[in-house]
Structure formats: C-alpha cells, structure tokens
Amino acid sequence: MPGQAKPLTATPHHPANSAWESLESDTQKAVNQVFVNTAKVIAAFEETIVSRNSPFDRFAAGMKTGDEDKQQAISVGAKKGLKLFVGKAGCVQCHFGPNFSDGEFHHLFLEKRQPGLPDGRYLGIAQLMVDPFNTKSAYNDAPADGSYRSPLDYVYRNVEFRGQFKTPSLRNAVKTAPYMHTGELSSLEEVVGYYNQISERQASGNHQETVLKSLNLTPDEQGYLVAFLQTLTDESFLETLSQRAK
C-alpha cells in the first residue's frame, strides 16, 4: 500500500491523491472504516469530558441550597459581572444553559477588520452536504430498517449564512486564547472591549445580525464581566483532563 495515499479532491493531480485512486475499491473502504472507527472512539471519549466544578458552579449550588459558604466561591466583583452578564450586557442571549452557548450561529462583523474572512456557516454547509462521512453516508450507525432521518434532511443553505460562526461555550474560556474564529483577540479583556463597541460595525453582504448590540459598559463594568468569566474555569477538570492525556 502506498505510504502517502490519501484522497485530495481539491487537488486531484497531487501524488497522494493519485496514489489513493490507484487503490482497489475494497482497500479504500477498509481504510475509510479504520478512520471512521477511530473518529467514533474519539467522539465517545469527548462525551465524557464534562466540566461542572468551577467556582461559578459551586456558587450556583450554594444559591440553590442556601449554602452561604459556597456562595462565597466567587468574588463580589464577579457577582457584579454575573448581574451584567444576565442583565445590561445581555451576554445570556447567546451564552446560556449548562454550556453557556445557544448552539446557534451569529455574524460578528470581523470582516470589517480583516477583509476576505471565510464564509463560515455558508461554506460549512456546502462541505458537510458532500462529505463522504456525513450522517447520510454508509458509515453512520443508523438502523437498516429505513426509520432513520438524518439531520441533514433539515439543513438548508442561505446566502444570509455568510460570515456566521457557532457560539462557543464560555466554560474554561480563560484557557482557550486566542479568541474569535480569526484568533485575533488575545485576552478576555479584548473580547469584552470588542463587544462593547460592536454596533459601530455594520453587517456586510446580506446578513443583518439582530442580536449583537454594543454592551456600552463602563471600564469598571467591563472588569466585573471579565471577573465573572474567569469564574467559569474548572481547574480540577483541567487537571484531570491533563492526567488522562498522558
């Protein structure tokens, strides 16, 4: 078997793609199945990665049970930041639930700073629909009785999706710099500062974002909001994850 064989549909004349095409169909299927099985094992492991012991989680548990000691798990400044998060700043509109994400896609207007940014969701859908490993492929785990309906049956592509990217979780965000899909912001302070004036940027093309508005926070309020975001860091989880990776 060629050592460098792999399908490269975007560059069909690449030596690696030519080597892949030279393989018999059964061999290609066998190789694909190995990759699919490996991906499923990784996905199963990722489902076990759950972060629920941050200072905020302990604070929330204390509020629920009336445990005053746990209510002191976050600082006064962080509590002010939480109030801003669910109130004046409106962060909770997109970052809510256990994972602090609405699971939706939004346009962040970053192309005003860096022209020619990728199409995000618009391009992603096109790639997903033709992906040989998507949920309509022979590699899914659906029952063979025909009862399964792929989520792709409900996916459509609209020009309005250009520039949209999925809302990330805020858990352990302090550990995931740089930020934004461009990686252009290096700190949470910069992220909050960007959103603080985001209404000054106009949506491009056909998309008009209706959720994101300038936060209009004072410097002190921005600091409180960052302090709250820092309470979403689960150090015990990160330590456990690090040990499991060894």
TrEMBL record:
Span list, region Disordered: 1-23
UniProt cross-references to SUPFAM superfamilies, sorted A to Z: Cytochrome c (SSF46626)
Query: EC number(s) on record?
Result: 1.11.1.5
Keywords from the named record: Oxidoreductase, Peroxidase, Signal
Quick check: keyword Kinase in the entry?
no
- GO molecular-function terms, A-Z: cytochrome-c peroxidase activity; electron transfer activity; heme binding
Q: Which domain of life does the UniProt lineage start with?
A: Bacteria
Q: Give the protein name, as stated in the record.
A: Cytochrome c551 peroxidase (EC)
